[in-house]
Write a structure and sequence with these properties.
Pfam families: GerE, Response_reg
GO molecular function: DNA binding
Number of strands: 6
GO biological process, one term: regulation of DNA-templated transcription
Structural class: alpha/beta
CATH architecture of the largest domain: 3-Layer(aba) Sandwich
CATH class of the largest domain: Alpha Beta
CATH topology of the largest domain: Rossmann fold
Keywords: DNA-binding, Phosphoprotein, Transcription, Transcription regulation
InterPro entries: CheY-like_superfamily, NreC/VraR/RcsB-like_REC, Sig_transdc_resp-reg_receiver, Tscrpt_reg_LuxR_C, WalR-like
Oligomer: single chain
Order of helices and strands: EHEHEHEHEHEHHHHHH
Length: 222
């Protein structure tokens, strides 16, 4: 069975970089349905095309400060079914926390200089489009250490490591591989995080997402 082609809107004000990314994504089987050089063009393109995911740079014309991520927050509020992957050379912790405030599902934030292979970027796109999360460790670290962290401070160093990897979208099995421990050990750490974050088991709740959101919300507080 052939996988559904991923539909992408790409927002990048650098024409050379934008054209290069279109070529790379097309070569990887993605369909770039529209490109944008400004935040207003991005919002119009996403509204018109309803892509699976929008790739957004933070700093766009006219002021080159935070127009892109402001647009991403607006898209998140009005079209939550569209995945958002912030792809920038800038770490904007406050805006990242705001973008994640209503849920980590379908959100990514990667730093340009830390993506070593095109395959990593495309994998992150697919993960975000499918409702997953893709956060660069530097973004997670900035969120984790950016504000009041009463419950986060209660975590052991290993529990914090596990939580950071959860926030990056890793499964328990993937975390076990990265930390070179058993999957059962990861399960115990995850359970400890749930306990310290006061997240009891219910049939309806996704405690994994709630745990990530809990510490992102705390670290984003002023």
């Amino acid at each position: 069975m052939i996988d559904k082609q991923l539909r992408v809107v790409l927002a990048e004000d650098s024409v050379i970089l934008r054209d290069g990314m279109v070529e790379l994504l097309t070569a990887r089987g993605c369909a770039v349905v529209a490109t944008a050089g400004t935040a207003s063009e991005l919002i119009a393109a996403v509204t018109g095309h309803r892509p699976d995911v929008a790739v957004v740079d933070i700093r766009m014309p006219p002021t080159h400060t935070d127009e892109g991520i402001r647009a991403a927050v607006e898209i998140r509020a009005t079209l939550p079914e569209v995945g958002i992957l912030v792809f920038s050379q800038h770490v904007e912790t406050a805006w990242a926390a705001r973008l994640l405030a209503d849920g980590a599902s379908g959100i990514g934030y990667l730093l340009k200089e830390r993506v070593a292979r095109t395959s990593e970027f495309v994998d992150a796109l697919h993960r975000v489009a499918a409702g997953g999360t893709a956060l660069d460790p530097e973004i997670v670290n900035g969120l984790l250490h950016g504000g009041r962290r009463s419950r986060v401070d209660a975590l052991t160093p290993r529990e914090r490591e596990v939580l950071e990897l959860m926030a990056q979208g890793h499964s328990n099995r993937s975390i076990a591989t990265l930390l070179v421990v058993s999957e059962r050990a990861v399960e115990k750490h995850v359970a400890a995080v749930f306990g310290k974050f006061d997240l009891p088991a219910t049939e309806a709740d996704n405690r994994r997402v709630k745990a990530v959101l809990a510490y992102l919300a705390e670290s984003g507080a002023s």
